[in-house]
Design a protein that fits this description.
Chain A: This is Solbitol dehydrogenase large subunit. The complex is a heterodimer of chains A (545) and B (478). With 545 residues, chain A is of the alpha/beta class. Chain A contains eleven helices and 16 strands. Chain A is globular. Chain B is mainly α and 478 residues long. Chain B has a two-stranded antiparallel ribbon with strand order 1-2. In chain B, strands 3-4 form a two-stranded antiparallel sheet. A two-stranded antiparallel ribbon of chain B has the order 5-6. In chain B, a hairpin with a 2-residue loop joins strand 7 and strand 8. Chain B is globular, with a radius of gyration of 23 Å. The chains are: A alpha/beta (545), B mainly alpha (478). At the A-B interface, helix 2 and helix 6 of A face helix 13 and strand 8 of B.
Chain lengths: 545, 478
């Protein structure tokens, strides 16, 4: 339990996902010394693939990543689990999946790389609900582009689809072609409705990029791209290490220490798997450990000077937990076959409800037609209907080519009662409390989900659909955000527009934790853009000091 | 250093020389306006692949700066843009010719044989002229000071290259106008004078002396790779390739069911061959198909005719999933399934449209040695021809897809060649390490101190061999 060695760097980063790794890469390339502390282990693609191939439940994205005891993570999205405890009326809808490994959760994302809309940053000013960010879209635009170049984002140029987020440059790569099913879906929607299906921007190669190959449509982006055609945080980790950053895996940070004035953080302390404690000092500190773990760490670091936790004079750390909690429907199309499961998981989206004056009343949303393999759904349905023998086989064949799966990202909104706390009853092997989240779906999001359900019924009718299977309740989208909310007022927010904590001048948070509103697009690109902006602030401050 | 048919070349070109009466440094008998000459010079520079060495990674073309590492120090490729101070702007045509053919700089100093002047010595006068006009008027002058080449004593005494040159001078210039040559003559000239084939495909002897014609294009190890036998032997060379196959390979780097170009051949295709005319590619192919066959008694069938699609039998029944940090050892088959099969197929058949090639009927997998298979796995394939970019990621120590250990690469190599190719070559982790670090060191490196002791000429011969050898390595690493 004693401090066995001393480690120090210009910048100490907690977390090696897309946020921490991209900051580490930028700073190491600028000649600064960087230590990245990652709670989880190093993993590699071939072993995760081996696990994926040998598991029968291909849709359980966390399963091929069985966690280590000292860095537990939830076993699966949407299942109760022994680590992330949820309570409240909609606790089941906050069973988020994420990974604690070197490279972070983007090992198993689907590559959706959205910019937020300008209105997403000004929700309160424009619609009188929720919160405004302390920055505007234009402040982030250059970093959005930098993040798109870093990850390699393929997206539609303005003349193909205008996605509503003004761009200074075209996407680094041409958009991912629509899969066969997505193309049929788009044609139908455009012919029969006023809704719009657009190409989804994806951090997935449509040409060789960054020495990684072109996507071949293996269709298992989640839980693991088998060929590295999709960006994973591990690529930024590799780049950062090549530039001289030091990554320490299996380093579970459990406490941040401040100086006598409490204005500055002076060190972080971590346990190794044997619970030996190590202290790491630095000039600047970045907590980039995912929305849930970042808030957990700040709360865990409570001491005499910071009784509610580090950076928590506002009592907002852990509050305002948001997601894109949505709804999900699977059904059998009565129209021509769509052959889902060919190509990348997601290539298109309905973005007709992403913004509008009604956002003063109800949340916006996006609709995905998920292009994953539907053999298991078709088989389950055919067996439930009592088919056997040759008829069963025919039904599976028919169903696999006709099944449709729709889900939505519905806009959450900051509500301080939706709150992460440290579990009083559950601790991990190191004695660190598990996270616990109280979650009640805000009325704003409930109304949005109700609207989505009506749309899903309309789409099902358009496709002469049968056998609707609604996912019970609401569907977690694993986009947790808001736990160290950004704002201009230190009394009701945790970080400022630079993602610097109001309380401690050398402490930054790089995570969706800082989001003041969650919009509708997947959160990763905004996390990366904010992280690169943190890196720019740090470079400016350290290199010109 | 073209070995083989030098006497033959002289005989062949003599009538043309008499007919045209070309003299050194004189204008071609055919009147060409300058624009035509520039464009011909540009084409010849492409055929000679000048850009490969005289451009540093990410640098301006021809501005030099590429550092060729050697145990004697770094040799820096010079700026060959026509900048008068840092480039070759003050060179007369005669001085230019001396640099190309004799390795003598404008100031009289001797170049190190990193510059392949022993090959370029064979370039015809008309082509020297076109190259000169191109470099003086078709390339924009760019002021770029490159670091000086500073070798360790005694190698920094450039004058001592004189003795080496006496021993190892290249063949004389080809006569006449190579544009008027017959197809086979033209192919011979392009293949040899501009230095594309023999440089890599012909084995070198200990002191780089003349090789006997019995080795010409017979195949040789090359910085971890293996430049194969490209003589028309049916089993050992490219005897089962048609002229069109060879042309397609040179133009695109890929002939499905036969071979794909990677490594230095991929670069040669990308920077040089893919930009040559159909006529010239056919000339090279036709020439290659009629050179003397060299038979390797070990080769019992053509290297691109091994193997059939084979589906591995992988046991999917595992009692439990392995913890994410348990990077347990896998056998060759599992390494294949988890790293290769997503693109090449479980059965190794590749994609139906050849986007990823088949591993059976593939010269790399069917080759008598595993060198190129190891190197393709470690370094991948990265080749752009006519705007078409082909990329297979490498699986070596800097891979962003999967970093395989040397042991895993060895197991994978043996599985792939054993299942789809010429058999299990029993490659070891040490073999993989040696290959990816640039292949076995020449005996010369080990003998260097003794050679220096033995005499200056021997030392310089040795040094030159090393420079030549490291130049090839550097081209690989670019």
């Amino acid at each position: 339990m004693s401090s066995s060695n001393s480690l120090s760097a210009d910048v100490v980063i907690v977390g090696s996902g897309v946020a921490g790794a991209s900051i580490a890469n930028e700073l190491a390339r600028a000649g600064l010394s960087v230590i990245v502390l990652e709670a989880g282990p190093r993993i590699d693609r071939q072993h995760i693939l081996e696990n994926f191939r040998t598991t029968e439940n291909k849709g359980a994205y966390q399963l091929p990543y069985p966690p280590v005891p000292w860095a537990m993570h939830p076993p699966d999205q949407g299942s109760p689990n022994g680590y992330l405890h949820t309570t409240g009326p909609d606790g089941a809808a906050y069973q988020q999946g994420y990974l604690r490994v070197v490279g972070g959760t983007t090992w198993h994302w689907a590559g959706c790389a959205w910019r937020y809309l300008p209105s997403d940053f000004e929700l309160h000013s424009r619609y009188g609900v929720g919160r405004d960010w302390a920055i505007k879209y234009d402040d982030l635009e250059p970093f959005y582009y930098q993040a798109e170049v870093m990850m390699g984002v393929a997206g539609p140029n303005m003349d193909v689809d205008d996605l509503g987020s003004p761009r200074s440059h075209n996407y680094p790569m041409k958009e991912v072609p629509l899969s066969y099913g997505a193309d049929q879906f788009r044609k139908l929607i455009h012919e029969k409705t006023n809704y719009r299906v657009v190409h989804e921007p994806q951090a997935r190669n449509t040409r060789p990029y960054d020495k990684r190959p072109t996507c071949e449509g293996n269709n298992n982006c989640m839980p693991i791209c088998p060929i590295g055609a999709m960006y994973n945080g591990i690529h930024s980790v590799n780049h950062a290490e090549a530039a001289g950053a030091r990554i320490i895996p299996n380093a579970v940070v459990y406490r941040l220490e401040t100086d006598a004035s409490n204005k500055k953080v002076v060190a972080v302390n971590y346990y190794d798997p044997d619970k030996n404690s190590h202290r790491v000092t630095g000039k600047f500190f970045v907590v980039a450990a995912h929305c849930i773990e970042s808030a957990k760490l700040l709360l865990l670091s409570a001491d005499d000077k910071n009784p509610r936790g580090i950076a928590n004079s506002s009592d907002q750390v852990g509050r305002n937990m948001m997601d894109h909690t949505g709804v999900q429907l699977s059904f059998m199309s009565g129209n021509d076959s769509l052959w889902p499961g060919r190509g990348p998981l997601l290539t298109s989206i309905i973005d007709s409800f992403r913004d509008g004056p009604w956002r003063s009343e109800r949340g916006a949303y996006l609709v995905h037609m998920v292009d994953d393999n539907q053999v298991d759904f078709a088989t389950g349905l055919a067996i439930a209907k009592g088919y056997v023998g040759k008829e069963l086989e025919e039904q599976i064949r028919y169903g696999s080519s006709h099944a449709v799966r729709l889900f939505s990202h519905n806009e959450g909104i900051a509500d301080p009662d939706n709150r992460l706390t440290l579990s009083k009853t559950h601790k991990d092997v190191l004695g660190i409390p598990h996270p616990e989240v109280y979650y009640k779906l805000p009325e704003y999001t409930v109304k949005s989900c109700d609207h989505t359900k009506e749309l899903f019924k309309e789409l099902m009718a358009l496709m002469s659909g049968t056998d609707p299977q609604w996912t019970k309740g609401y569907f977690p989208q694993c986009h947790p955000s808001g736990s160290t909310i950004m704002g201009t007022d230190p009394t009701n927010s945790v970080v400022d527009g630079e993602c610097r904590t109001h309380d401690h001048e050398n402490l930054f948070v790089a995570s969706s934790a800082v989001f003041s509103s969650v919009g509708t697009g997947n959160i990763t690109l905004t996390i990366a853009a904010l992280a690169l902006r943190v890196a720019a602030s740090l470079k400016k401050e350290m290199l010109h000091a | 250093m073209r070995e083989g048919n030098k006497a033959g070349i002289r005989r062949l070109f003599l009538p043309a020389a008499i007919a045209s009466g070309v003299l050194f440094g004189a204008q071609s008998a055919r009147a060409e306006d300058q624009a035509t000459t520039i464009s011909r010079g540009a084409y010849l520079a492409t055929a000679g692949d000048c850009v490969a060495c005289h451009t540093k990674p990410g640098g301006a073309p021809f501005a030099g700066g590429l550092v060729i590492a050697s145990p004697m120090g770094g040799i820096v490729a010079s700026n060959i843009t026509p900048d008068p101070d840092t480039g070759i702007g003050k060179y007369t045509e005669e001085e230019f010719a001396n640099a190309l053919r004799k390795g003598i700089r404008r100031d009289g100093a001797h170049l190190y044989p990193a510059m392949p002047y022993t090959a370029y010595s064979e370039i015809a006068d008309t082509d020297i002229h076109a190259l000169y006009v191109y470099f003086m008027h078709g390339v924009a002058p760019l002021r770029q000071d490159n670091p000086k080449t500073e070798l360790k004593f005694p190698f920094n005494i450039r004058a001592m290259m004189i003795s080496w040159n006496l021993l190892f001078a290249g063949p004389p210039a080809a006569k006449g106008d190579p544009q008027t040559y017959s197809k086979i003559e033209r192919g011979h000239y392009l293949a040899d004078a501009l230095g594309h084939c023999g440089t890599c495909h012909t084995p070198r002897n200990f002191l780089m002396g003349e090789r006997s014609s019995s080795a010409y294009l017979g195949g040789t190890p090359l910085a971890g790779w293996y430049a194969p036998n490209i003589t028309p032997s049916m089993n050992s060379g490219i005897g089962d390739w048609s002229e069109d196959d060879l042309v397609q390979y040179l133009r695109t780097g890929s002939v499905p069911g036969r071979a794909q170009a990677a490594g230095m051949m991929g670069e040669a295709v990308e920077h040089s061959f893919s930009k040559l005319t159909d006529e010239d590619l056919h000339a090279i192919a036709a020439y290659i198909r009629q050179i003397p066959k060299i038979e390797d008694s070990q080769a019992k069938q053509p290297r691109d005719r091994f193997g059939v699609a084979v589906q591995p039998i992988v046991d999917l029944q595992k009692p439990k999933l392995d913890r994410e940090d348990d990077l347990f050892p896998m056998d060759g088959e599992r390494i294949y399934v988890n790293n290769c099969a997503a693109c090449h197929g479980l059965d190794g058949a590749g994609a139906a449209d050849h986007f990823t090639p088949s591993l059976s009927s593939n010269a790399v997998v069917g080759a008598p040695g595993a060198d190129n298979l190891i190197m393709a796995i470690v370094n991948g394939v990265d080749r752009t021809t006519n705007g078409h970019h082909v990329l297979m990621p490498g699986f070596g120590p800097t891979s962003d897809v999967q970093r395989l250990s040397d042991t895993d690469v060895a197991k994978l190599t043996n599985y792939v060649s054993g299942t789809f190719g010429s058999g299990d070559h029993h490659v070891t982790a040490q073999d993989v390490k040696v290959a990816r670090e640039g292949g076995p060191l020449p005996a010369l490196v080990k003998d260097m101190p003794a050679l220096i002791g033995a005499g200056v000429i021997a030392a310089f011969a040795a040094m030159s061999c090393l420079i030549w050898w490291f130049r090839r390595r550097t081209q690989k690493q670019k």
